[in-house]
Design brief:
Number of helices of chain A: 19
Radius of gyration of chain A: 23 Å
Distance between the termini of chain B: 98 Å
Largest sheet of chain B: 3 strands, antiparallel
Number of domains of chain A: 1
Radius of gyration of chain B: 35 Å
Oligomer: heterodimer
Strand content of chain B: 5-15%
Strand order of the largest sheet of chain B: 5-6-7
Strand order of the largest sheet of chain A: 1-2
Helix content of chain A: over 70%
Largest interface: A-B, 31 and 27 residues
Strand content of chain A: under 5%
Structural class of chain B: mainly alpha
Number of strands of chain A: 2
Distance between the termini of chain A: 33 Å
C-alpha cells in the first residue's frame, strides 16, 4: 500500500463517512463563518447576528436530533469510529450533541432576551460561544488522547474570552486573566499526563488503552507499577477536573463566575461541565473497559479516589457557599457542589465496572444504571441551573445588581421570576417533586450499590446526604430574602411579567424541572438506552 | 320496517328530542351571560325552538311506532273487544273467551289472547317451528294478523298468560330472536312488554358493575315524551308572555327588600329562566328515557336541582329561597331511601339495568326485571327460607358462582322496593313528605305548571310505574295506603286555602295520591293513565291561574277576586274546562255528539239574540260555540261518552279501588277515601272557579285594572284545554289507555299472592275491574256532582255565606287551614329535637372538649417553658457550636480563595503533588 492509496483511503473515509457524521459541528462552523461574513459585508444592518446564531443553533440541533433518532431506531449498539479513530460516533455522542445544542439554543435565546451582546459585539460573542460548543461536542465524541486535549483547549480558549467579555469591567478582565493562567497550568499538567500515557502505551487511541494496559500489566514482571499508571491517569484527570471545577482545581470558578455575565456563567456551569463529564466517562471507561485483570484493584482504587475527591468537592462547595453575598458567586459554589455530586456518579461507575468477581453482566448492568443516573442528573441540571442563571440575568437587567440583599421582597414585584427561582433552587437542593430529586436519588442509589463493593462508597453516600442538608440553608437564604423580606422603599422595579418574553422563557426553562420530577420514565429510559452503548 | 330499524328510528328521534333542550340550555346560559343588556328575547325563542322541535320529534317517534307496528288495527280490535266485554258485563252474559281460566286471579290481557283464539287460529298452534322459520326468513313488516300468528305459535300455558300486544312486538323482532334456536327462546322473550333498549355510552366499569347511559323505550316512554314535550312547549310559549317583565336591565322586585327597606333592584333574569326551563326539560326527558336505575337517579337529582333553581328563581325573596331549600331538603330525605334501595339492588343483582333486550345471547346477563320476575311475571319465592330466587331470564333460575341457584332474602327485596318508593314519596310530594310542594308555589307560575304539576312530581309516579316489577305485594300495599292518605289529606286542605295557586298545589298532591293509589292497588295502567291526563289538565289549570295572576297584577288571594269571567273570558273558559276535567264530571248516558248539538243550538240562540238586538257583542261566543259544537258532533268524538279526561282516569282508579275492596274487604279505606275525595275534589275546584270568576267583584280596584292576557299566553291555554278535554276519550277502551297498557309489566297479568304471611292479597284483574266499572263510575259521578252542587250553592249562588260555615266549624277549619299541623308537627318532631341535640353537642363541645383542650394548652405551655430552657441552654448551645464551627470552616475556605493568582497556580502544583503522595501512601501495593 503506497502513500497514494493510503491518502485515497483516508479521503474516501473522510468524505464518505466521517464528514456526514459531524454535520452538527459543520453547521456550527458554517454559522460561525456566516456570522463573520455578516460582520464583514455589513449585512448585520439588516440581519441581527443573534438571529443568524439562533437559526444556526436550531438547524444544528435539528440535525443532531435526527441523528439521534436514526440511531435509536436502528437499535443495537452502533459504534462507529470516524476520522480514522480520532472521533467516535454512537448514541452517547449523539445524546450529548443534542444536549449541548439544546442548551446552545436556550443560551442564545437567553442572550437575545437579556440583550447581553450588543449589535457590535454580537458576531464576536456568538463566534466564541459556538466555538466553545464545538469544542465540547468534540470532547463528547473524542476517542483519542490528542482529541481529548484538543477538545478541552477548544472549549477553554473561547471561554476565557467570554468570561472577559464585559470589557469595561475590571472584575471581568481580572477573572478572565485568572481563568487563562489557571487553565494554562491545568492544561500543562494534563498534557504531561497524556504524553506519559501515550508514550507508555504507544497509542493515543482510547479504545486501545485498556488492551495495552492489560498487555503491560500481565506480561510477567510489569514494566511499570500500577501506582505509576495511576499517576498518569491522575494527571490527565487534573485537566478534566479543572474543567469540572473539582476541588482542589476549582479556584478559578468563583472568580470567573463573578466576573463573567450571568449568561456566560450559566453556559460555562452547564455546558463545559457536560462536555467534561462526557469526556471523563469516556476516559474512565477507556482504561477500565473489559477485564482489567491485574490492574482491577488499581482501577477500583482510582474510582474510590474519585469518589473521595467528589465528596470533598461537594462539601467544600456547599460550605463555602454559606458566606457568599453575591448570587452569582453563590451559584458558582453551588456549581462546584453539583460537580461533586455528579462526580460521585462517575466514581460509582468506575467502582461498579471494576467490581471484583466474575459476574461481569451484573457489573455492567449496575454501571449502566449509575451512568443513567449521571445522565439524568445532567439533563435536569441543564434546566435548573440555566433557569437560576436566567433569573439572575433578567433581574440584573432591571436592578443592575447581583447582590443577595438587593433581591429583598422581589416576590411583590416579579412573582413569576421568583417562583421559577424557587422551583430551580428546590430542585438544586434535591427536593421532590422536582427533577433534581430524581437525579440525586439515582446517583445516591448507584452509590449505595457501589457501597456493596467497597464500604468507602457508603461513606461517600453519607457525605452526599449530609451535603444535601448543608445546601438547604444557603439556597433557602436566597429564597427567604426574595420571598419573605419586605421590598425596601424606592427599590427599582423588575418588569418581568407572566406574558412577557423573559417571563415566558423562564417558565419554559423551569417547566422541565417539574416535568422531569414527575414523569421520570421517558428520560430515564432514554438515558439508559444511551448509557448501555458504552458497555458493550 | 323490522324491529331493529323501527327501534333505531324511534331511538334516534327520542334522543334528539332529549338532547335538544340541553343544547338550548348551554347556548342560552352562555349567550345570556355574555349579552350586553337584558332586553333580548332570543333565549326564549331558542328554548321554545328546542322544546318545540323536541315535541315534533317525539310525536314523530310515536307515529313511527304506530305505523310500524300496525298499532291502529291492534287498537281497533282491542277497543272493539273492550266494548264487547262491557256490553257482555252489562247484560250479565258469560264473558267471551274466559271459559277455562276464569277462576284464576284477574289477568288483564287474557281476554286478548282468547279473542285471537276465537278468531279461529287454532290450527296455527301446530305450526310452531314452521312459523318460526318463516319469521326468520321474512324480516319484514308483520301485520297484526301475523303478530297474532306469532303469538299463537307459542301458545303454551305460559305464553297464554302474556299480554297480546307484546306478542305483536315480539313477532316484529322475531327475526332477531327466532334466529337463535334456543329452547327457552320462546319463553325468554315473552316476559315483558315490547321494549327497545340498549346502551348509548359506557361511563365506567367496576368489576361486574357497568355504569352506562342507556335507553329503555316502550310505549310508556313514548307517551311520556310526547306529553312532556307538548306541555313544556305550551308552558314555554306561555312563559314568554308571563316572564316578559324580566326583560329589563333594572328589575324592581316589590316583594324583596334590602335591609334598609328599599325594594330590590336587579338586572332581569329572563334568559336564566329559560335556560333553567331547558335544563329541566332535558333532565325530565333523560329520566324518562333512562335504561337503568342509576341513570334514573342521576337525572332524578338533576330534576331536583333544576326545581331548586326555579323555585328559588326570585332568590332575593326570603320566602322563595326558603321554599327552594325546603323542597330540596325534603327531596333529599326521600332520596336517602332511594340510595338505600340502589345499594340493596346493587349488592344483590350487581346490575342497575332494567332489562336486557338481547337475552338470546346467553352470555349477556339479565336485567333487574328479568332477574326478579319469572317470564310469567311471578316472584320465585321459597316461603320457608324466606328467599326469592333470581331468574336467568331464560326461564330458569340464575346460578351463582358455585352453581347453586342465586337468591336474595325476601325482606331485602322489600327494603329495596320501599327505598326506591321513598324517593318517589319525596319527589311526588306524598305523605309524609308532602309539605314542600305548596311552598314551592313561590316560583313563577309557569314553573309551577311545568315543574310542580305535570312533570317533576310526575317523575315519582313514573318511577313507581317503571320500577313496578321490583315491588312486592307488601310494598304495593304501602304505596296504596300512602296514596290514599295523601289524596285525602291534601284534598281537605285544598278546601280551605284561599290562595289561588295553593289550591292547585294541594289538588296536585291529592291527584298524585290518586295515581299512587292506582299503582298500589294493581291498577298499573289506571295510575299512569291518570298521570297523563292529570298532566294536561293540571298544567292547564296552572297556566290559567298564571294568566289570572298576571291579569290581577300578582294578586293571588281568591277572596279579592270575583266576577273575572267578564274580564277574562278565554282564561275563564279554559279554566272551566280544566276544572270540569279534574272534578271528573260527566253526563251519564250522553255522548259528546249530543253535547255538540246542544252547543250548536245554544250558539244559534245567541246568534238570534244578537240579531234581534242588532249588535255583535256575542259574536266571539257564538263563533266558539259553533266551532266547538261542530267539532264535537261531526268528528270521531261524537260517539264518545260526554266526559273530560279526568273523569276517565279517575274512574279507572275508583273502579279498581272498588274491585280491590270487594276482593279484600279489610282494605275498605282504599276505596272509601278516593270516593269521598272525588267529591271533595269537585268541591274545591269549583269553589276556586266560582270564587274567581263568578259573583260580584270583591275588589273593585283590582277588577278595573284587570285585562285579558295577550295571545302568547291564551294560545297555550286553548291548546291545552282541548287536550285536557279529549285526551282520554274512550276511557279504558280509548287510545291513550290502550297505548299505555301495552307497556304494562307482565306481572300485572300474573297471579300474585303475598309471601311470608305478611299480607295476603287478592289482586284485581281487568275483567273484575270492568265488572265493577259502572257501579264505581256512578258512585264517583254522584260524589263529584254533589261536590259541585255544594260549591255552586255556597260560592256560585252565594246562598250560604262561607264565613258562617267557617265560624260554625271553627275547629275543623283552623285544623285544615293549618294544613293538619304537618309543618308544626315536623317542627316539633325533627327541628326541635335537632336543636336540642345540637345545643347538647355544643355544650359538650364547650364544657368537655374545649375544657380539655384548654387544660392541654396550659400544660403544653408549662412544658414548653421548661423545654425552652433546655433548648436554649443545651441544644441551642450545641447547635450554635456546630453552626459557628461550620461558619468558621466556611470562612477559612473563603480565606483559601485569596484571589491571588500566584497562589492559585501554586495550588495546582501543590494539589498534584499532594494527590500523588496520597496515592503512593494509600495505594495497595
Amino acid at each position: 500500500m503506497n502513500f497514494e492509496e493510503i491518502l485515497n483511503l483516508f479521503i474516501q473515509d473522510t468524505a464518505d463517512t466521517s464528514v456526514g457524521l459531524i454535520r452538527p459541528e459543520l453547521i456550527l462552523c458554517g454559522t460561525i463563518l456566516s456570522l463573520l461574513f455578516v460582520r464583514l459585508f455589513s449585512i448585520d444592518r439588516w440581519i441581527t447576528p443573534s438571529w443568524v446564531a439562533l437559526v444556526g443553533a436550531f438547524v444544528a440541533f435539528g440535525f443532531a436530533a435526527n441523528d439521534f433518532m436514526v440511531l435509536k431506531e436502528a437499535g443495537g449498539d452502533t459504534v462507529q469510529e470516524i476520522f480514522t479513530g480520532l472521533l467516535i460516533f454512537d448514541r452517547f455522542t449523539a445524546f450529548f450533541r443534542i444536549f449541548l445544542l439544546l442548551f446552545l439554543v436556550l443560551v442564545v435565546t437567553l442572550t437575545i432576551l437579556s440583550g447581553l451582546p450588543d449589535l457590535e459585539d454580537g458576531p464576536d460573542f456568538y463566534t466564541l460561544l459556538f466555538g466553545s460548543t464545538i469544542g465540547m461536542m468534540v470532547m463528547a465524541s473524542s476517542n483519542h488522547l490528542l482529541i481529548l486535549f484538543l477538545g478541552v483547549e477548544m472549549t477553554s480558549v473561547p471561554s476565557y474570552v467570554m468570561v472577559g467579555f464585559l470589557k469595561g469591567k475590571r472584575v471581568s478582565s481580572e477573572a478572565s486573566f485568572k481563568y487563562v493562567v489557571y487553565g494554562a497550568g491545568a492544561s500543562g499538567v494534563m498534557l504531561y499526563g497524556i504524553s506519559l500515557l501515550a508514550g507508555l502505551l504507544g497509542t493515543g487511541n482510547m479504545s486501545l488503552i485498556a488492551e495495552r494496559l492489560q498487555m503491560i500489566s500481565s506480561s510477567g514482571e510489569p514494566i511499570v507499577s500500577g501506582t505509576a499508571i495511576s499517576v498518569m491517569i491522575l494527571m490527565v484527570m487534573v485537566g478534566l477536573a479543572f474543567k469540572l471545577s473539582v476541588f482542589p482545581f476549582h479556584f478559578w470558578c468563583p472568580d470567573a463566575f463573578e466576573g463573567a455575565s450571568a449568561e456566560v456563567a450559566g453556559f460555562l456551569s452547564v455546558a463545559s461541565k457536560a462536555g467534561a463529564f462526557a469526556l471523563l466517562v469516556r476516559f474512565a471507561l477507556a482504561f477500565s473497559a473489559g477485564d482489567a485483570g491485574a490492574l482491577q484493584p488499581t482501577f477500583l482504587y482510582i474510582g474510590l479516589g474519585v469518589g473521595v475527591i467528589a465528596a470533598i468537592t461537594a462539601t467544600y462547595g456547599n460550605l463555602a457557599a454559606y458566606m457568599q453575598t453575591n448570587v452569582k458567586r453563590l451559584l458558582a459554589y453551588s456549581t462546584i457542589a453539583h460537580a461533586g455530586y455528579m462526580l460521585m456518579g462517575v466514581a460509582s461507575v468506575i467502582v461498579l465496572m471494576n467490581a471484583p468477581g466474575e459476574d461481569t453482566a451484573a457489573a455492567t448492568a449496575n454501571a449502566t444504571q449509575a451512568l443513567e443516573g449521571l445522565l439524568y442528573y445532567l439533563a435536569v441540571y441543564l434546566f435548573m441551573n440555566l433557569g437560576a442563571f436566567a433569573v439572575v440575568a433578567f433581574i440584573r437587567n432591571s436592578i443592575f445588581s447581583e447582590e443577595i440583599e438587593d433581591y429583598a421582597g422581589l416576590i411583590s414585584v416579579t412573582p413569576i421570576l421568583c417562583v421559577c427561582m424557587l422551583i430551580c433552587m428546590f430542585s438544586l437542593i434535591g427536593m421532590p417533586p422536582f427533577g433534581g430529586f430524581v437525579g440525586k436519588f439515582m446517583i445516591f442509589a448507584s452509590l449505595f450499590e457501589a457501597g456493596n463493593i467497597h464500604w468507602v462508597m457508603w461513606l461517600i453516600l453519607v457525605a452526599g446526604g449530609l451535603n444535601t442538608v448543608f445546601s438547604l440553608f444557603y439556597y433557602l437564604k436566597v429564597l427567604k430574602v426574595m420571598f419573605l423580606d419586605p421590598r425596601p422603599a424606592g427599590a427599582p422595579d423588575v418588569d418581568v411579567r407572566w406574558g412577557s418574553l423573559p417571563g415566558f422563557y423562564t417558565m419554559l426553562v423551569t417547566a422541565p424541572v417539574v416535568v422531569l420530577g414527575v414523569l421520570v420514565q421517558g428520560l430515564s429510559s432514554t438515558a439508559q438506552n444511551v448509557a448501555s452503548v458504552l458497555f458493550p | 320496517m323490522d324491529y331493529q330499524t323501527t327501534g333505531e328510528t324511534i331511538k334516534t328521534l327520542l334522543t334528539l328530542a332529549w338532547l335538544l333542550p340541553l343544547l338550548g340550555f348551554a347556548v342560552e346560559i352562555f349567550a345570556g351571560y355574555w349579552q350586553r343588556d337584558r332586553l333580548s328575547k332570543a333565549a326564549a325563542q331558542m328554548a321554545v325552538g328546542c322544546i318545540g322541535l323536541g315535541f315534533l320529534f317525539s310525536s314523530w317517534a310515536l307515529m313511527t311506532y304506530v305505523q310500524a307496528t300496525g298499532w291502529n288495527e291492534r287498537y281497533e280490535h282491542e277497543s272493539a273487544h273492550h266494548k264487547e266485554l262491557v256490553a257482555a258485563i252489562e247484560e250479565g252474559k258469560p264473558l267471551p273467551g274466559h271459559g277455562h281460566h276464569e277462576e284464576g286471579h284477574g289477568d288483564g290481557h287474557h281476554d286478548d289472547a282468547h279473542h285471537e283464539h276465537e278468531e279461529g287460529h287454532h290450527e296455527e298452534k301446530h305450526h310452531d317451528g314452521e312459523h318460526k322459520a318463516e319469521e326468520s326468513e321474512k324480516q319484514t313488516a308483520i301485520t297484526p294478523k301475523d303478530a297474532a300468528l306469532a303469538q299463537f305459535a307459542i301458545a303454551d300455558p305460559i305464553a297464554a298468560e302474556k299480554p297480546d300486544s307484546e306478542h305483536a312486538e315480539h313477532a316484529e323482532h322475531g327475526h332477531e330472536e327466532h334466529g337463535h334456536d334456543h329452547e327457552e327462546d320462546a319463553e325468554a322473550k315473552h316476559e315483558g312488554p315490547a321494549v327497545f333498549s340498549g346502551v348509548y355510552y359506557r361511563l365506567a366499569k367496576f368489576g361486574d358493575l357497568e355504569i352506562n347511559i342507556e335507553y329503555y323505550i316502550d310505549t310508556l316512554t313514548l307517551v311520556m315524551f310526547t306529553m312532556v314535550t307538548f306541555i313544556a312547549t305550551c308552558i314555554h310559549i306561555f312563559a314568554m308572555g308571563y316572564m316578559s317583565d324580566e326583560l329589563t336591565d333594572e328589575y324592581v322586585d316589590h316583594e324583596a327588600h334590602y335591609a334598609n327597606g328599599k325594594h330590590v333592584h336587579r338586572p332581569g333574569r329572563f334568559y336564566k329562566f329559560f335556560a333553567f326551563l331547558s335544563l329541566f326539560c332535558f333532565s325530565m326527558l333523560g329520566l324518562v328515557i333512562a335504561g337503568n336505575i342509576f341513570q334514573v337517579f342521576v337525572f332524578w337529582e338533576l330534576v331536583g336541582v333544576c326545581s331548586y333553581f326555579l323555585i328559588g328563581f326570585y332568590v332575593e325573596r326570603k320566602s322563595a329561597s326558603t321554599a327552594a331549600n325546603k323542597a330540596f331538603i325534603m327531596n333529599r330525605v326521600g332520596d336517602f331511601g332511594f340510595l338505600i334501595g340502589l345499594m340493596a339492588i346493587w349488592t344483590t343483582f350487581g346490575t342497575f339495568k332494567f332489562a336486557e333486550p338481547d337475552l338470546a345471547h346467553a352470555d349477556k346477563p339479565a336485567g333487574l326485571f328479568q332477574m326478579i320476575r319469572t317470564p310469567g311475571g311471578e316472584l320465585d319465592v321459597d316461603e320457608e327460607a324466606g328467599v326469592v330466587y333470581l331468574q336467568d331470564g331464560h326461564g330458569g333460575r340464575l346460578k351463582n358462582d358455585e352453581g347453586l341457584p342465586a337468591s336474595m332474602p325476601y325482606w331485602l327485596l322489600v327494603v329495596a322496593g320501599l327505598g326506591v318508593f321513598g324517593g318517589c314519596i319525596g319527589k311526588s310530594a306524598q305523605f309524609p313528605l308532602q309539605t314542600w310542594l305548596p311552598d314551592a308555589m313561590e316560583g313563577p307560575t309557569p314553573v309551577s305548571a311545568l315543574v310542580h304539576s305535570a312533570t317533576m312530581v310526575a317523575a315519582g309516579v313514573y318511577l313507581a310505574g317503571r320500577f313496578y316489577p321490583m315491588f312486592t305485594p307488601e310494598v304495593l300495599l304501602v304505596i296504596a295506603y300512602v296514596g290514599a292518605i295523601t289524596l285525602f289529606v291534601a284534598a281537605t286542605i285544598a278546601m280551605v286555602v284561599t290562595d289561588l295557586k295553593q289550591v292547585l298545589a294541594y289538588s296536585t298532591i291529592s291527584q298524585l295520591g290518586y295515581m299512587m293509589l292506582g299503582l298500589g292497588i294493581f291498577g298499573w295502567a289506571a295510575g299512569l293513565f291518570h298521570l297523563v291526563t292529570h298532566a294536561f289538565f293540571k298544567s292547564l289549570l296552572f297556566l290559567c291561574s298564571g294568566s289570572v295572576i298576571a291579569a290581577c297584577h300578582h294578586e293571588q288571594e281568591m277572596p279579592k277576586m270575583g266576577g273575572l269571567i267578564r274580564k277574562l273570558p278565554i282564561t275563564g273558559s279554559a279554566m272551566l274546562v280544566g276544572v270540569i276535567a279534574i272534578a271528573g264530571l260527566s253526563v251519564p248516558g250522553v255522548s259528546f255528539g249530543v253535547i255538540g248539538y246542544i252547543l250548536l243550538i245554544l250558539g244559534l240562540l245567541f246568534a238570534l239574540f244578537d240579531i234581534y238586538k242588532r249588535e255583535r257583542t256575542k259574536l266571539p261566543l257564538v263563533a266558539t260555540l259553533v266551532v266547538v259544537g261542530l267539532m264535537l258532533s261531526y268528528t270521531g268524538l261524537a260517539n264518545a261518552k260526554a266526559a273530560f279526561s279526568g273523569f276517565h282516569s279517575k274512574d279507572a282508579i275508583v273502579a279498581t279501588a272498588l274491585t280491590y275492596f270487594k276482593m279484600n274487604p279489610a282494605h275498605l279505606l282504599l276505596f272509601i277515601l278516593p270516593l269521598i275525595t272525588a267529591g271533595l275534589t269537585a268541591f274545591y275546584m269549583f269553589r276556586l272557579w266560582f270564587y274567581t270568576f263568578l259573583g260580584k267583584p270583591r275588589d273593585e280596584h283590582l277588577y278595573d285594572h284587570c285585562h285579558e292576557s295577550p295571545l302568547v299566553m291564551t294560545g297555550p291555554l286553548v291548546a291545552l284545554s282541548v287536550l285536557a278535554a279529549i285526551c282520554a276519550v274512550g276511557g279504558e277502551g280509548g287510545k291513550l289507555f290502550v297505548m299505555l297498557s301495552e307497556s304494562a309489566p307482565a306481572m300485572t297479568h300474573a297471579v300474585m299472592a303475598g309471601v311470608g304471611s305478611t299480607v295476603s292479597l287478592n289482586l284485581p284483574g281487568h275483567i273484575d275491574v270492568l265488572t265493577n266499572h259502572s257501579s264505581a263510575g256512578n258512585l264517583a259521578t254522584i260524589a263529584a256532582v254533589t261536590g259541585t252542587l255544594i260549591a255552586f250553592v255556597i260560592y256560585g249562588l252565594g246562598l250560604i255565606n262561607p264565613a258562617d260555615i267557617k265560624s260554625s266549624l271553627k275547629g275543623v277549619h283552623s285544623y285544615l287551614s293549618h294544613k293538619w299541623y304537618f309543618d308544626e308537627l315536623y317542627d316539633t318532631m325533627f327541628m326541635k329535637p335537632a336543636h336540642i341535640v345540637a345545643r347538647f353537642c355544643a355544650a359538650i363541645d364547650k364544657y368537655v372538649f374545649d375544657a380539655f383542650l384548654h387544660w392541654l394548652s396550659r400544660a403544653t405551655l408549662w412544658i414548653s417553658k421548661w423545654d425552652r430552657l433546655f433548648d436554649e441552654k443545651f441544644v441551642d448551645g450545641l447547635v450554635n457550636l456546630l453552626g459557628a464551627a461550620t461558619f468558621r470552616v466556611g470562612g477559612s475556605f473563603r480565606k483559601l480563595q485569596t484571589g491571588q493568582l500566584r497562589q492559585y497556580v501554586m495550588f495546582i502544583a501543590v494539589a498534584v503533588v499532594t494527590l500523588s503522595v496520597v496515592l503512593f501512601v494509600w495505594f495497595p501495593h
